[in-house]
């Protein structure tokens, strides 16, 4: 038996190439495939399975999810789910408004604010009433200047003051008039909810906007038993503050309440702030912002030595009196304004772009073939929505692909389909002659805008570009992302009916990271 066992062992050793008295040779290492030729570890099918599994999460089971992902180069569909269904988009509605503005107004478009007088200044620098005719220049704002103390609130206005003084104006014999007749319609979209109208994101639209049509408010505790400290910036004669807030002791309950009256520039502050509390800092909306514009413009002109004999007032009626343009202020190009709109998701800027599209189309269509003038009684918003619809039809979005009620997405009545968003992004990313301006306007994951705190430490950081959207029970994310294999994908994801924001955004972010990490080929 022992002899037989020894023979079997000898055979095994000889079969393995090992002889008695020899040191076993190491097994040769497998030939390494150069990284450039390493076969992919993932397939499209495996990617689809992982996306599907993530969307079947129990956290999302009571909500509705719409997804579409395609190759930018070929249009090949990588994944879709409910892509033709309607979803409330939140700020993903901005995609359609801003893309139309870039395409139809062009990236070099500038807003112009004109200064009119009955005649040019005389030899003494005197003019009659001065009329400031606004066309919606949102760049008269702190957002376009470095934040340097309280002067930042006036830098936009001071550019206009400089041009008025440079025109030779030293004395205004009459009123200083804010003419906001360029736009027509309700300055607050009727579908916005009343509790959005107090804060900066529910700001009114005006032909003469100033500092995003919002004002900064700070409420801090004072000494115990005394009123809270309240500051408005900029200081102005338009707002009235009713301060009934008191300072309470250490570790008492904070009951501070701030209410900005709808359609009134009155802020009521009630309740109490513990003495060791950090207080409140935020921005509230301005009702009838042209009133603030013209009031502060008058102050800044007087500070530069311009005498004004009349009042500062606002008109919504177009002037028919003879006048000459003695000065004008031009905004930065639309390409910059688009980025200032999309990256922070600025609602008022988007609505202004929508209204500008409307007035631009009104001007273009007003001349009739016979040489007369046809008057369209639609308001600026209605005309703007029609302009967006025409553009989307031109690029192949289904006629019922979106239902639009405002420009920004603050309305809960807007509806979009993921397919419509993907078609828009595909056109703007590859076919539009203004593709670069569009891409530059988008927020970048882990870098800036509303995506600055997302995707850090992943392959999507500095890679994904797009637009977010968030309102109550709604999150959306659409954009572009490059895979690990270097292919660019277009995606749109919308989640409705899920209460927890973290649940909505984490699902979308995980899918974007899956796309960024994908090393297979999609085309």
Low-confidence stretches: 1-36
Can you tell me the number of structural domains? 2
Helix content: 25-40%
Q: Give the overall pLDDT as a whole number.
A: 91
- DSSP E strands, number: 24
How large is the share of residues in beta strands? 15-25%
Main sheet overview = 6 strands, antiparallel
Q: Indicate the CATH class of the largest domain.
A: Alpha Beta
CATH architecture of the largest domain: 3-Layer(aba) Sandwich
Feature tags:
523 residues, 2 domains, single chain, D-tyrosyl-trna(Tyr) Deacylase, Chain: A, 24 strands, Beta-lactamase
3D architecture notes:
- This protein has 11 helices and 24 strands.
- Helix content is 28%, strand content 21%.
- With 523 residues, it is of the alpha/beta class.
- It has 2 domains: 44-107 and 336-366 and 374-517, 3-Layer(aba) Sandwich (Beta-lactamase), CATH 3.40.710; 112-332, D-tyrosyl-trna(Tyr) Deacylase, Chain: A.
- The chain is globular, with a radius of gyration of 31 Å.
- Residues 1-36 have low confidence and may be disordered.
- A 6-stranded antiparallel sheet has the order 2-1-24-23-22-21, with helices on both faces. Strands 17-7-5-3-18 form a 5-stranded mixed sheet, with helices on one face. The chain has a 3-stranded parallel sheet with strand order 4-6-16, with helices on one face.
- The longest helix is centred in the C-terminal third of the chain and has 20 residues, at 347-366.
């Amino acid at each position: 038996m022992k002899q037989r066992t020894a023979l079997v062992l000898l055979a095994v050793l000889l079969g393995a190439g090992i002889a008695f008295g020899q040191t076993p040779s190491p097994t040769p290492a497998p030939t390494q495939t150069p990284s450039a030729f390493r076969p992919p570890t993932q397939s499209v099918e495996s990617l689809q399975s992982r996306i599907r599994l993530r969307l079947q999460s129990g956290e999302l089971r009571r909500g509705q999810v719409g997804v579409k992902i395609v190759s930018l180069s070929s249009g090949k569909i990588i994944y879709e789910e409910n892509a033709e269904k309607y979803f409330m988009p939140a700020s993903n509605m901005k995609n359609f408004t801003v893309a139309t503005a870039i395409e139809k107004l062009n990236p070099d478009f500038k807003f112009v604010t004109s200064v009119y007088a009955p005649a040019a200044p005389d030899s003494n620098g005197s003019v009659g009433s001065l009329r400031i005719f606004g066309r919606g220049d949102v760049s008269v704002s702190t957002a376009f200047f470095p934040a340097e103390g309280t002067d930042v609130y006036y830098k936009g206005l001071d550019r206009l003051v400089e041009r008025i003084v440079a025109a030779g104006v030293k004395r205004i014999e009459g009123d200083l008039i804010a003419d906001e007749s360029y736009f027509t319609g309700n300055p607050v979209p009727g579908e916005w909810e009343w509790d959005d109208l107090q804060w900066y994101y529910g700001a009114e639209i005006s032909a003469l906007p100033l500092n995003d049509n919002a004002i900064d408010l700070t409420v801090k505790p004072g000494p115990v038993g005394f009123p809270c400290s309240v500051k408005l910036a900029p200081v102005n004669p338009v707002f009235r503050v009713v301060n009934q807030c008191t300072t309470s002791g250490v570790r008492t309950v904070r009951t501070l309440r701030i209410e900005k009256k709808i359609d009134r520039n009155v802020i009521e502050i009630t309740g109490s702030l513990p003495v060791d509390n950090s207080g409140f800092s935020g921005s509230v909306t301005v009702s009838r912002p042209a009133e603030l514009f013209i009031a502060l413009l008058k102050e800044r002109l007087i500070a530069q030595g311009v005498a004004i004999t009349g009042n500062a007032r606002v008109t919504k009626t177009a002037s028919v009196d003879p006048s000459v343009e003695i000065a004008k202020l031009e905004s930065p190009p639309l390409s910059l304004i688009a980025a200032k709109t999309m990256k922070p998701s600025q609602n008022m800027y988007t609505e202004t772009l929508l209204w500008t599209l409307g007035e631009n189309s009104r001007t273009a269509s007003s001349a009739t073939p016979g040489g007369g003038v046809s008057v369209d009684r639609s308001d600026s918003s209605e005309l703007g929505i029609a302009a967006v619809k025409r553009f989307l039809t031109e690029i192949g979005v289904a006629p019922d692909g979106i239902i639009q009620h405002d420009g920004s997405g603050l309305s809960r009545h807007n509806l979009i389909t993921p397919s419509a968003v993907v078609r828009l992004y595909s056109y703007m990313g590859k076919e539009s002659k203004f593709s670069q301006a569009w891409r530059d306007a988008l927020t970048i994951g882990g870098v800036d805008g509303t995506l600055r705190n997302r995707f850090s430490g992943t392959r999507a950081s500095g890679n994904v570009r797009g637009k977010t959207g968030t309102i109550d029970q709604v999150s959306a994310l659409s954009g572009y992302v490059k895979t690990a294999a270097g292919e660019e994908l277009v995606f749109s994801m919308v989640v409705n009916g899920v209460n927890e924001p973290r649940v909505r955004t984490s699902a979308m972010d995980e899918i974007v990271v899956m796309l960024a990490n994908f090393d297979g080929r999609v085309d």
